[in-house]
Amino acid sequence: MIIIGIDPGFAITGYGVLDYTGNKFRLLDVGVITTNAKLDFPSRLLCIHNELDILISKYKPDAMAVEELFFNTNVKTAIQVGHGRGVALLAAAKAGIKIYEYTPLQVKQAVVGYGRAKKEQVQQMVKVLLNLDKIPKPDDAAYALAVAICHAHSNNAINLYNIK
Fold first, then answer.
1. Where are the domains of the chain?
2. Range 61-78 average pLDDT
3. In a 3-state reduction of DSSP, which class is residue 59?
4. Of 20, 30, 46, 144, which cross-links 14 as Cys (Cβ 3.0–4.6 Å)?
């Protein structure tokens, strides 16, 4: 199963593409989509969409795992990140890819075993689980991989227990 994990944003959107077969991970791609702050907001969203279309065409994922938003302070930033998240969901829907959404708590629980884990703990476990030489940079890329790992573990449980 090929999974694309997304850490949504509008300035930086993290992505990680994993092949998860036989309980083993193989890293296919990881990185970020950055948008130019000098562009107007719709143009930045279009940039995210275009780059995601390229990734989807290249890897043909079976699933897209996207982090749900959690903001408790800056409403304007939350709305803008929500737009970026919506663009990711649209790209997956257009391509007919199944979409799965996970809270930050679920991602941390699946990757670290503790829902209140710190960012550094998540990054270290991503490195260990994927048998990487170093932690993927920037943070958004590492977290996108964590979201993909979360889906692989969640999907495994769904299949194991035949949950519908």
1. 2-160
2. 83
3. helix
4. 144
The strand pairing partners of 6, in sequence order, are 15, 66
> d(Cα 152, Cα 128) in Å, to the nearest integer?
15
Strand ranges, E, within 56-96 = 63-67
Residue 76 dihedral angles phi and psi, to the nearest 5°: -60, -45
- What six digits make up the tokens of 151? 């889906």
**Phi first, then psi: what are they for 91, rounded to 5°?**
-60, -45
Residue 36, pLDDT score = 97
Distance (Å, rounded) from C-alpha 58 to C-alpha 64? 14
Residue 120 identity: E
Look-up of token digits 């958004």: 140
97-148 pLDDT, tens digit per residue, is 999 999 999 999 999 999 889 989 999 999 999 999 999 999 999 999 999 9
26: phi then psi, degrees, rounded to nearest 5: -135, 120
Structure tokens at 94: 């257009």
d(C-alpha 109, C-alpha 149), whole Å = 11
What average pLDDT is seen over the chain? 91
Annotated catalytic sites, by residue? 7, 67, 140
